[in-house]
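Changelog note: in this version the structure field was regenerated for every chain. One regenerated record is shown below for reference.
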Amino acid sequence: MLQFGKIFVPVLLISRPRFEDDRGWFSETYQRAKFAEAGVPDDFCQDNHSLSRPAGTIRGLHFQAPPHAQAKLVRCVRGSIWDVAVDIRKGSPTFGQWQAAELSAANGDQLYVPTGFAHGFVTLEPDTEVIYKVSAFYAPESDAGIRWDDPDIALPWPLPASGAVLSGKDAVLPGLRDIESPFDYDGRPLLPLGA
């Protein structure tokens, strides 16, 4: 299942083949040259792994400001998530618009989120694990974010009846109109998710 915002932004949905036999399957989840051919130019330097126990856990919407801006390559290795990227590049014709995809251990899909985008996800199942590569090391002085429920973005989070589970930090992030984006529109072509 793919969900699209109002217009397409340069975020890539990447599917890698799985080679199955009677033991299970094998998949090459990242190979620099193949990913560069697919439009992922970043050199990743750090892997992050999160476990979210309750369904409805929201992590985001996060970004790191330059000079520590991070591109991300996100995949879910247990359970499932609704993963979203929001365009926050000043001057972009799609500023404030988003794209999202369901990533799961079952489908093995990955979402590439370039710099200039805020990133977040909600867990669709309990005990969900997410692994993501980043192109810059964590830098607390550059850490920033936008409210998950900003009405100007109007994300249709698929939440359980119990509602969202948030960290204290994420619960008090500012709205999109309350931040000065550190990113300029870079002229990258706007492509449909999965193109």
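Spot check on this record: Confidence is low (pLDDT under 50) at residues 1-8. The first strand starts at residue 2 and ends at 4.
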